[in-house]
Each structure stands twice: as structure tokens, then as C-alpha cells.
Amino acid sequence: MAVELAYAILTPYSLHKSRTGGILARLIARTGLELVGARMFAPSRDLVEKYAAIALSARDPQDRRIQELIQNYILKRLSPDLKTGRRRRVMALLFQGEDAVRKIRAAVGNFSVDHSGGETIRDTYGDLVLDEHEKVQYFEPAVLAAPEVHEAESRLKLWASYSDLDGGLLENVVTYPAEAKPQRTLVLIKPDNFRFPTGRPGNVIDFFSRTGLFIVGIKVHRMSVSQAIEFYEPVREVLRNKLGDVVGSRSQAVLEKEFNFRLSENEVHRLGELLGPAFGDNQFESIVKFMSGRAPSECSEQERNLPGTEKCIALVYEGPDAVRKIRDVLGPTDPSKAPPGSIRREFGSTVMVNAAHASDSEENARREMKIINLNENGFRKLVEEYYGPIR
Fold it and tell me: Which of 97, 305, 338, 354 gives 345 a disulfide partner, CB atoms 3.0 to 4.6 angstroms apart?
């Protein structure tokens, strides 16, 4: 069976209600597909009207009446606000794998007046409320997905063609009180969450949703060795300078056991001074390899700039006191010292394999976002790699 490219679009309401993590967890866990791309959009009226125009399809097994509801929903709820002109947030996710389009649509589900189970995403997060005369009182599809491969192609090409103008790191999409001072911070969902298809990445995002912050940027990223070195460069000197005592005491235990004599406190200190920087460099190499898939010492200069073999999700959260709120939910670097209910206590295992990274200041957030290159349009690149150039 051929490998396909499929999409799922999270509606503004799903994002507003912080359902992103739960939806992503189901899309990955229930399909077994690989998440290969993601991009935030603030759709223009032009994009919305063109998308709505191709929303109806004879190939769609969904009832025609439901298709028309979805078409009207797209026009009303994805367009910029009529009163303020402010654009709405939309998240587009790309999945790849065998039979991907059917699997994504099956996970998303179809609406049925008679069905009230919780098997699909729409069962849980969508709503179709009718009155006694079967007139629609409320409708929320939660996620939009193509019914079959031909429809996936036409709709993906459309979104990709607008992905530079209407997508990327979004600006001016959230309304705040006049006194509010919103910040932006970066989160990385680390590679240990992607060892096999699981709901873990979505579950981690679900924890971050407690903060009440808004996602304004997302990217599926494979960090190069060069990027990992630059990203974690501030950690290198800390490792070189702060591990001397640890290395000294460990070396003392080994040497005294092996040679059966005791070392003085001064000799232990000198051992730490001698071996600490080398041990710190070794630990730094391990961090780079964990994030990129390659250690600096294992690759050439040219290979250092290639996309890594490990995957992470980069997210930008926005809102008042964003840096502190995100780090409070994340927890300390060492999962064993993290409080119950924190991300690292729930999902981390070691100081390095600790589920996620979060910027520790606005300044570092800006630095790290620049390294990750959040505005890079990987969405369009993936669509064009699969379907060819988009005009």
C-alpha cells in the first residue's frame, strides 16, 4: 500500500478550549502514523473562501447536510472576525504513512444524529445539537480532514499555497486586557516522546494547556548538530565548571578501591579540576546526540548542518507571565526532584531524558526561537516534496 500524506486542521474553537494535546494524542495513537509537519495559520478571507468552495465532495461518505454545515462553519468560524478584523488561530498537522488519509479521517470521525459514542475525535470534542424539529442549534466539528486521497491533494495544495502569507509564527491573533503584558516562550517536546507512535507528545502538550496560554507557533523539527550545539551552548560551560566535585568524588571512590590507598581532600579537588571539564564536554556531546541523533565528534563539518535523525515539536506559547507559567508546569530538570503533577515527574526519567525543554527567560526564548527558525515553512516543503511544485 502506498505511503500517503494526510492532514488534520484543528479549528479555532479547539485551540481556544486547549484541546490540542488530546486531539494530537488520538491522531497519533489511533493511526500509528508519523507526524511529519505542523504550522499555525491565521487564515485570510481569501483562503477561507477557497477552502469552503472545495469542502463539498461527492467522494465524501459524510451526509450532504453535514458537509454543508461544515462548509458554512468554515466560512463563519475560520474567517477573520467581522467586527474587529482580527484573524483566528488554526493549526494544520501533516501525517505520513500507509493509507494515511483514510486512517486520519477514521480517527476524526463522521457526524451522526443517532450515534453518541466516544470512539472518534468528533464524538469527544465535536458537537451537533438539534432541537425537537431537527433544526441545528449548535455545530462544532473540532477537526477538519479530507475524506479521501484526491480531496487531500487539492486541499493540501491550497493550504500550502497560502502557508507563507497566512501561516507561521502568528502576530496579533489574541486579545488581551489593556493592562496585560504578554510574553512569548519556547517549548520543545523532546525526542524521547517519539520513540514509537504514542499519545505522549499530545499528553505533554495537554499538561501545558493548564497554563491558559495560547499557542501561536508550531513546528516539527529535526535539530542539526550545529543547531543543537548553539542551542545548548550556555549549558556547556555550566557542565565544565560545575561537575568537578562530582567527578572528583567518583574518581576518589574508584582509585581508592583499585589501589587500596586514601586520597587527601586536596588531591580529590585537583582530580575534579583536571577531569571536570573533560567530563562536562562528554556530557555535552551526549546532550547534542540525544537531541540531534549525532554526536559532534562522530560527524564531519558538512554533516553537522544536516537535519538530525531525531524529532521534536517546537511550540511558542503566548500570554501574561508565560515563561514562569510554562516552567512551573514543566518542573525541575531532574525528574526525581519534580513535584507530582509536573510534566517531568510524569514523563521524564533522567536529567537528560526529561520530556521537554522550556526557555528560562524572554531573552533566551528569542535566542532559541531564532536557532529553531520557527518561521521556516516546512509545511509547504513537505507538500511540494509529495505533490510537486505549487504555483
Answer: 338
